[in-house]
Amino acid sequence: MILKSFRLRLALLSALLSGVALVGFGAFAWWVVYDIKLRQVEIDVISNAERESHRMVPADMWRNFGESVLPRLMGSRDPHQLLFLVEDASGEVIYRSPHWPANMDSSKFEWPTTAQPLEAERLERPGFMPPPPPDGMGLGRPPLHPDDIHVDRPPHPHDFLPREALDRNSGELHASQLARPRSVLQTLKIEDTKWEIGLATTQFLRVAIAFDLGAIDEDMQLISNGFIFSVPFALAFIGLGAWFVSGRALNPVRRLNQSIHQLTAQGLDHRIALAGEYGEFAELISGFNAMLERLEKSFKQASRFSADAAHELRTPLTILQGQIELAMTQVEAGSAMQTTLGTILDEVRRLSSISRKLLLLSQADAGRLRLQRVGVNLTAELEGLVEDARMMAVDLAISCEIAAEIYIEADEELLRQIFVNLISNALKYNIKNGWMKVSARQSNEWVYVHVSNASDSMPEESRDKLFERFYRVDSAHNRKIDGAGLGLSLAREIARAHGGELNLTNSDPTKVEFILSLPKF
After folding, report:
1. Is the pTM of this model over 0.85?
2. Mean pLDDT, residues 46-70
3. H or E element that contains 296
4. Is 367 left (phi over 0), alpha (psi -120 to 50) or beta?
5. Which of 82, 124, 136, 231 has the fewest CB atoms within 10 Å, counting from its CB?
């Protein structure tokens, strides 16, 4: 039932759509960050491998670089996530990381082919040394500087070049010896570890730098965990925000709903203010106010017509009834004329009853039904009506269970009208040799009267329409059963005017039972 709330559905839908958007954005951001980290690793291993392939230094300098400098350059938190290998051109190991995996054979690496010598024209400048490739493709990480190398003597610029590339007499570079390094990337999986390897070669050295991609997976797992942890809080915040905003937005609808529930025949002149409302709601409220105006006008016209017609009919019908009664005394008793006049008199009395009921209904609709409240002995009133019913329907089994000393403050005449309508209907619409039962009980503040009778199975649609004006069950349209279909609707209006209610129970299809509830004061 709660899922039928538009406000709740709006909040849940907002949270759902936001969740989908967050998950989609998170997946895309995760992929972008992973790709950036992977590309950064690729750039780092290649650029560092190319730079180091230019150097020809003692083994202790390679060890210092591999164990302290390289992890700092690569931004690695764990030195075991990096592998460093230096070999000469023949494949003899010059330096290898102490934690180098035993099952990682460098001979299976896809080493690039030996580089070609540099152009002679680029080596004519005295003291030329080819600069290392820009690390990080211009992302800001500086290349290795000689100050990063700690040895017993200050580093010489020629430490960054193979000795064979220098002229033994002049110390100048030989174009026939020096060449750019060749480099490639290789991804290699050893057992459960995946390595990204940068391989660089020159005529004199082969350098391999490998990075454990599991480090990236660990970083991405931390990002994923943080995202998964924060998404529920974000969705809860979005849902609560949508609930609050939708509540504020639905205030005009809520006020409109309250006005509809409070709408009565006496409150048709009520209008909802338009000041400060949004355009869409202002249009809705304006249409509702216009509907109320039309309804009020139509209702007043219909109520005025019913009251005027009933009032205007009372005098001629009273005169007509008196004249017919006088004529009946002047004709021969038992004659055909007297029978005809008796039939006409019955119809006039029926019209008078309808006119009186219409007048009462029009007054009730307009909220002008005046109640002359007095103390009424309900027990005595009901017992008297039950005795009258027993004399009128001797073939019916009539019983009563009426509590003693039930007193109520009500309009005695109108209250009697309710009981007369209920009991007369129970007698008229009963079955042959049927039954009728009247019971009454009281509580501290309320009185409950039950009037039930045996009946054929009444259609469900008839039960729903019994209180409609001028409605009669199909079998009751026979003119032998007196009535105009106004008694139950009038009885309900009188009960409501007293602050009570009249209802039909649907517990048993083989009987008809009405429950009248009235306040004692």
Report:
1. no
2. 83
3. helix 279-330
4. left
5. 124
